[in-house]
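Run: sequence + S-adenosylmethionine -> complex structure.
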Amino acid sequence: MSKIKFKTPFATTVGIGPVFETQEDKWNHVLKTASDYKCNILIEFGTYKGQGVLHYLNNGHFKKIISVEPVKEYFNESKEHLSKFENVELYNQKAIDYLTDSNLQEFSDDKILFFIDSHPQPPFVENSSMDLMDELNYIIENFKNSKYICLVDDVRIWGQKQGHPLKYKICKLLEDFSSHLEHYNDTMTFVP
Ligand SMILES: C[S@@+](CC[C@H](N)C(=O)[O-])C[C@H]1O[C@@H](n2cnc3c(N)ncnc32)[C@H](O)[C@@H]1O
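>> structure
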């Protein structure tokens, strides 16, 4: 697959542009991405209250959905709605801890969509941009032989501060390692 050539330097365009009008529009974009790239496993970072997972379950596209949420109260609330579904696994931890703890090799016959939607939400106020860099680095380094793509939401927060070095670091990492990048609304799809 050939790499997109951006008319303006990639990092200057990231985070500028429309956001999704509704949560449902965002969830439908996740489903469209999964369908376009034939991903049958969803690993979502940032469950919040589980409404996104419920939307995906209603659609029936995924064989399995894993969702990870560090805030205990959100995790508990999502568990109330989702524990009855056999193809859903919920984890109460940070995305990077899930990545380092889990054995994702079990999905070697499948294609994973990592949906990184872990924008901090009170009461969790850690630096999500630093976490994102760690998560992307971990995925790139550890899934060299796996079939996956990454969809990252809230790309506007990378550029919250003008000239923030992290925005350029993230863009450089993605440009160096991807065969294809798609910037749509407030999301970035990264294909290794
Ligand atoms: C925008 S909400 C997620 C919405 C949900 N994906 C949906 O579509 O319904 C962001 C969630 O990410 C969680 N979060 C923050 N930092 C995180 C991290 N490092 N790992 C995983 N989740 C994180 C927040 O607690 C919050 O619940």
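>> summary
The pocket of S-adenosylmethionine is lined by residues 44-46, 48, 51-52, 68-71, 74, 94-95, 117-121, 124, 128, 131 (CB under 6 Å). The domain at 10-191 is CATH 3.40.50.150 (Rossmann fold).
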